[in-house]
Amino acid sequence: MSERLVMTGGTVVDQHGERRLDVRIADGCVVETGPSLVVDPSVEQQLDVSGCIVGPGFVDLHTHLREPGMTEAETIESGSKAAARGGYTAVVAMPNTDPTQDCVEVVKFVRQRGIEVGLCDVRPSGSITVGRAGESLTPFAELAAVGVHLFTDDGSGVQDDGLMRRALEYAGELGLVLAQHCEVASLTRGAVMHEGECCSHLGLPGWPALAEELMVHRDIELVRLTGSPVHLLHLSTARSVELVRAAKADGLPVTAEATPHHISLTDESLRAFDARFKVNPPLRTMADVEAVRGGLADGTIDAIATDHAPHPSRAKERPLDEAPPGMLGLETSLGVARSVLGLGWQQLFALLSWQPATIAGLGEVHGRPVAVGEPAHLVVIDQNAEWSVDPMQLASLSTNTPYVGMTLQSRVRHTIFHGRPVVIDGMVNA
User: Fold this and answer.
1) Is the per-residue pLDDT at 1 higher than 50?
2) Which of 429, 405, 407 has its CA nearest to residue 416?
3) Bridge partners for 386 per DSSP
4) Which of 160, 175, 181, 324 is most buried as measured by Cβ atoms within 10 A of its Cβ?
5) Predicted local distance difference test score (pLDDT) of residue 2
6) With contact defined as beta carbons under 8 Å apart, do 106 and 131 qualify?
């Protein structure tokens, strides 16, 4: 890395607090900070970030990049552009690709493709079971040897209790993390939306909160038995939050995430039968939304994860009961969080950056303090910006955002990856 860059006039926010600092970057690292650095225009690029927040780049624990196999919806290249525009310098790519990320060859493909075309660090996850079929475990040790740290059958929960126990024991021996999609499948067959008053009014098959909560409870007890860590994906119900809160009070190694849509939207959004609002797990009630927000505020939930799930327009235009679940999330996550949570900047960065980095096993490289000698994976945020979501202006190949026309607060202005500005003034700098 030969690029030299100085960001001037910004307010730095990281693990050490908030302070006014200029930041000098060279060779991919932060080399100097100070309140008033002098810029040499002959060898350095200056970014005036006056009035902006400068902090460690975001890390997404839950991104569907669709490649290999479903490149009409997204590719590693297009998804990484969306991630960079959203302030992410690292994403964990979910394994429900075609073929599944359950073997060394596919994992290596995703990792190498990310290195070749990615505008952020693309880290493949591995599936817990072969083909995500829930029948036999993947070769954890082989996948760990090529860099996989987080394993999940996301999109499907591991239904077999004994198999999940063995997976936790195996992962614990290797120092890996299992991430569970919490859904008891026998309770959700044919379900379209949250089981509640709105569901009954619309006459649609309901998805009970209990389907999530039973698996949250089971996996917490398996953690208690095995001592191995588990990360719970996209919590969506009040009772799930209570269960995790109690587990943490007991000192169990349980972490959890929540999505932007589960803190901002409710099942009432489906009254127009609009499949953009169909997601797994489904949008819940306002009481659930408030509980999940509370879990983020008090530390029960460790991370905001996008569950970025692109789909081609023709798929989302199908009838509600036939359309696939999923929403875009990478480019709108900051704006949604800022608009609905009311948290301070340091707490927001914890949820978006260094806490997910630690869970993903990336804490030595991403989510680092803005300090001399640290990698220059940074985001610059215009904290006063207000913007309206236009799906045609997003970097994703798909347009299935539920936030069309919504005004969001704060927006990523620049993203710095390996010391290079890959997004400048909100536009990709490829």
Assistant:
1) no
2) 429
3) 409
4) 181
5) 53
6) no
Structure tokens at 252: 């169990």
Closest CA to 330 of 120, 183, 182: 120
Per-domain residue ranges for the chain? 4-54+372-428, 56-359
As to burial, measured by CB atoms within 10 angstroms (0-12 exposed, 13-18 middle, 19+ buried), residue 242 is middle
Q: Select 56-359's CATH number: 3.40.1370.10, 3.30.565.10, 3.40.50.2300, 3.20.20.140.
A: 3.20.20.140
Task: Give CA 143 to chain center in angstroms.
Answer: 21
Q: Which two tokens stand for residue 324?
A: 């696939």
Contacts with 260 (C-beta within 8 Å, 6 or more apart), sequence order: 304, 306, 329, 332, 333, 336, 337
User: Active-site residue numbers?
Assistant: 307
Render pLDDT for 327-386 as a digit per residue (tens, 0 to 9): 999 999 999 999 999 999 999 999 999 999 999 999 999 999 999 999 999 999 999 999
- Between β-strands 22-26 and 29-34, what pairing exists: parallel, antiparallel or unpaired? antiparallel
Task: Report which of 77, 83, 109 is spatially closest to residue 95, judged by C-alpha positions.
Answer: 109
**How many residues are given for the chain?**
430
In tens, the pLDDT along 255-279 reads 999 999 999 999 999 999 999 999 9
